[in-house]
């Protein structure tokens, strides 16, 4: 089981409280985790990554094991602690200002 935390606005959209747990087939990567999230919560399609390019939205960041994984390749394996469910994969809404 993969544990995923979503930012409050996406939790509200998906109608979930707290962490969500997902089954991910095969290697655990950003792409496979996001595919599993979008399959289970279709209302989140297009909110975390672009519909067409599948690239991460500009104001969304990914963290795991106290590391920013936002700029890692989407098919790079996530840390073992994520794959085993010991640590959550965190999707965070970034702040912008000026």
The best one-word shape is: globular
| Neighbour order of strands in the largest sheet | 2-1-5-3-4
Total beta strands: 5
Task: Return the string of H and E elements.
Answer: EHEHEEHE
- N/C terminus separation: 40 Å
CATH class category name: Alpha Beta
Content of β-strand: 15-25%
Largest sheet: 5 strands, mixed
CATH architecture: Roll
Strand-pairing-aware structural class: alpha+beta
Q: Give the proportion of residues in helices.
A: 10-25%
- Mean of residue pLDDT values: 93
* Helix segment tally: 3
Estimate nothing, just give the exact number of structural domains. 1
Keywords:
five-stranded mixed beta sheet, globular, Ubiquitin-like (UB roll), alpha+beta, 98 residues, 3 helices
């Amino acid at each position: 089981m993969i544990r995923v935390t979503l930012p409050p606005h996406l939790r509200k959209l998906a109608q979930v409280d707290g962490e969500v747990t997902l089954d991910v087939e095969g290697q655990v990567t950003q792409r496979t985790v996001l595919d599993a999230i979008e399959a289970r919560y279709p209302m989140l399609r297009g909110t975390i990554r672009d519909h067409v390019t599948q690239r991460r939205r500009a104001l969304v960041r990914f963290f795991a094991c106290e590391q920013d994984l936002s700029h890692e390749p989407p098919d790079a394996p996530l840390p073992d602690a994520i794959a085993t469910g010991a640590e959550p994969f965190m999707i965070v809404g970034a702040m912008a200002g000026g």
